[in-house]
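Cross-check.
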Amino acid sequence: MLPELLNQEEIDIRDSQLENWKIVENHHLVGLYQFVNFAMALEFTRKVGEVAEDLQHHPEIDLSWGQVEITIFTHDRDGLTELDFQFAARVEEAFNPHKEDEVEKFMVLLEEGDLLEKREAARKLGGLKDSRAVPSLIRALTSEDVALSRRATRSLGRLNDRRAVDPLIDLLENEDDLLRQYARDSLVELDEFSVPGLLKAVKSRDNRKRKLAVGALLEIRDDETLQLNE
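Predicted model, tokenized:
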């Protein structure tokens, strides 16, 4: 049985979980991996081939000096299916085989470590860009330690996950000036995911929240966005 084409929401959710891939015209995935020499690029290409054979799902591969570009989509469906994202995730693991262990380690530290460990874990999880960390980072936003909340706020902006939007919108009313600014900056990083929540925040009675929301919207789009929603 052939896999079903994914709808827009399903594509957006899966896209947030991939670091080195982009979606092109909602039709195919393109992954780009950089290496320091040809030999490493060639070895990685061999690993990609193993993934393709294991899944019986074969991409186009462009190998050049220090770079591998991979294009994948489901030909029988002429578009993107779960199989394409499964393939991309497996290639990500082949590129960085220790990433999954690191994510789990820092998630545990964020929940159970001492204060300094929690702060460092919040920072590291942003760099790893794995959406599994989103719930833990959201919980850290309400920490009594403002430094931890600030780091979690900045990291959520880097994870490209719509689940972070509403908690970050709430922070626009926080008493801490820097935390409010970090929340605004992260909402800008989340780009179009943030727009519906920011449009609601523009109507807030809280003047600080309203001004930050307007500023974020102006960076994501332009004045026309606000004019159309007045």
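The longest strand covers residues 28-34. The chain has a mean pLDDT of 90. Passed to J.P. for a second look.
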